[in-house]
Structures are given as C-alpha cells and as structure tokens.
Amino acid sequence: MNDLALGREGTPHLASGSTTMQGRFFVVTCFGLVFLNCLTFLYHFTGSTVFNVLSNSTSLLLILWSARHVLIANERSYFYNALLTLACIFTGASYLVNFGAFELSDGLKLVSIYSFYVAGRGMAERVQPPEKRCIYVLAALPLLFKVIGHTQVYTGIEYPDVFSYFPNTNTAALYFSALFFALSPWFGNKVLVAQFINAAIMNRVGPALATIISIGLWSFFPLRPQVFVALILLACASVAAYAVGALDRLITGLNAIALIWSLDPSTVARMSTKQLIDLTGTTDMSAFFRVTHWTNIWQIYSSLGIGGILFGYGASQTGVLTVLPLPPHNDYLRVLAEYGLLNFLVFAIFVFTIVFSLKDRAAKTMYTVLLIYFLSENLIDNFTSMTLFFCYAGRFTSPKWLAHSPSSA
C-alpha cells in the first residue's frame, strides 16, 4: 500500500500505484453524488417523479456503500464506532416508540452522517484526482441549471427564495460550503475567499454571518498580537457597516425576535401577514417565524412524558404537530424534539468532537460554518452537502491522513 506523497505547497496527492479499496470509496462516493445531482437536475427541470425515485434510490445505495466500508475499514475508531452504534440503537428506539408517526427515510438520513464519517475515516489513505473533478462538476450543475432551467418542484408562495434546484439560498450556500470544505486540502485558505464570494452571491445574512463568526472564532486561537489588530479592524468594519445600513436586516430581525417573548405561538399563527408587518415594522418575517416556531416546538416536546423526552415525538412530525406546518429550521432542536434527548446527546458529542479533531485551519473553519448553520436551517435533509461534509471530515481527522498532511492549525 502506497502512502500519500506531498506535492507543491504541501498539498497531499496520490502516490503512484494501483487503486485500492481506500481510494475507491471516495471516488465512487463522489461519482455517485454527481449522478444523484444529475437526477435532481432532471427532476426539477421536468417535474417527473421518476427522477425523484431514482435519486432517492441512489442516495440509499450510497448509504449502503458507506455502511459496507464501515464494516471493512482497517482503521478502527472505537469512539466513533460506538457513537454510530448508539445512534442506530436510539434512532431505532425512537422509531418503535413513535411507530406510525416516524418518517423512516428521515431517520436513515440522520444515521447516515455517522456512517459516512466512520467510512471516510477508515478509508483515508489516498486522494484520487477524479474526486476533485467530481467536485467541480457538482459545483457546475446547479449553476448550469440556474442558467438554462426553472424548477418545476419548488413553486408557490412557500418558496420565495429558490436558487437553482435548492429550496432557498441558505441551503444553496451550504451546498457550496461543503464543496469548499472538501477542496480545502488542495486550496487551503483560498476556499475562505471563495466562501465570502459564495455568501455575497447568495445575498443572505445567514451565510455571511456564519462565515464571519467561524473565521473569527478560529483566528483567535492561539492568541497572537495579530488577533487584537484583527479585532480592531472588525470593530471598525462593523461601525462602518452599521453606518451604511448593511446591518439593518440583522437589527430588524433581532427586534422582531424580541417581540415574540410576549406572544403565544398560536396567537402569531392566527395573525395575518399585514398584522405581523404592522406589529414588527418589517416585511422580513424569517427570524420572527423561526423563533416563534422554535418556541412552539419546545412547548410540545417539554410537555411529553419520559418516553417522549428520551425518544422524541417522531421523525418529520414537527410540521404535523406544531401550529405552523413547517419543519424546525434548527437541526439541533430537530434532533432533540423528533428523535429525543438520547439521540441529541450522541449527535452533539459527535459533531463537536469532529471540529476539535480537524487540524487544517481552512477545513476547521468551513466545518464550523456547518455547525452554525445547524442553528437556523434543515440541513440534514440536504443529502449531498451532508455526505461531503462528513465523508471528508472523516478523512481529514483520520490518523493516517494527519500523519501525511501538513497542519495549519
């Protein structure tokens, strides 16, 4: 078995030799994601459910592919294998407790992020050039659709912010963030520049704020004189942004959120859009509805018995039980309420131990963007993004990878 060689600028690349099972895992996974996104492209372009069925089948095959590699991995991580096992047990228990009120496909998506991570960690030795080409294709497909297509799936007033074949620009921004995360060994800190361009193109506060917080967080450690200079510059930039009105949307959102503490979620749900606009003074209801919805979800979850507290009220049941027929828009709260406290503890331990295991600063920063995004979106539903994030997080935290890759931390 050949080890990684280091190319220019310390970038890991494939040493000469025949392709092994370790190399094939990432190559096949990336090709599978390209095929999946081609089917998604066709589904949204034509509206034909045939392509949706095929894309779902492809997702299932990729999950089975990762599960196979969990079993044959030659690098055993007892800690993460234990988390995967617990996630399977607790998700299965949630299914049984909520039998008949549990969307099995959603439970499978949740468990799959653990299996993709463990498989990626165990198959981390090689980097194949076709992977990078696949990631470029994944970046091109939604942009091509944006130019030549119009979604036949996301229609109506419930989808005011569609981008290509994504339901909104926040989800699209996260998709490109996952691509940058996977490319970080090749491009280093250049992916952070690309991420700012990504946030600017999507023109949303969420992506930009998550990126700024993530970069700022990992720039502070270890503390250096440059950190204090950066803080001063950031403070000056914030004052300038406030002066030109760039923070108006954020401030308006925070003011709207403050109003809900005195209102019951059911009261908000009965109010017309005009009444809400008059109440908040803004037509931007996203932050207002999110926190109102979260409050309603917490009221329902906290009123459950011990079985409900431990195992939730069932995958994909939030929109059925709450006043507003919407998913949670917060994956931490989603795991807690729909899958229960035990699943939430496993999930939180899992995602936060990964970030401290990542050594490359660019990769750590892009992964932290995901952790911040989890606070305000339903990202586990985005299969390609989650697969890329957790497959490559597994690779980037593997002892084999770290032994041959330079660290910028």
TrEMBL record:
The region annotated as signal peptide is: none
How does it sit in the bilayer? Multi-pass membrane protein
O-antigen ligase-related domain location? 206-347
A GO MF term: ligase activity
Instruction: Could you list this entry's UniProt keywords, alphabetically sorted.
Output: Ligase, Membrane, Transmembrane, Transmembrane helix
Question: Any transmembrane segments, and where?
Answer: 25-43, 49-67, 79-101, 135-153, 173-193, 205-221, 227-247, 298-316, 336-358
Pfam families, per database record: Wzy_C
InterPro entries recorded: O-antigen_ligase-rel_domated (IPR007016)
* Subcellular localization, as worded in the UniProt entry: Membrane
Q: Which residues form a coiled coil?
A: none
**What's an example GO cellular component term for this entry?**
membrane
| Name the record gives this protein | O-antigen ligase family protein
Organism of provenance: Bradyrhizobium niftali
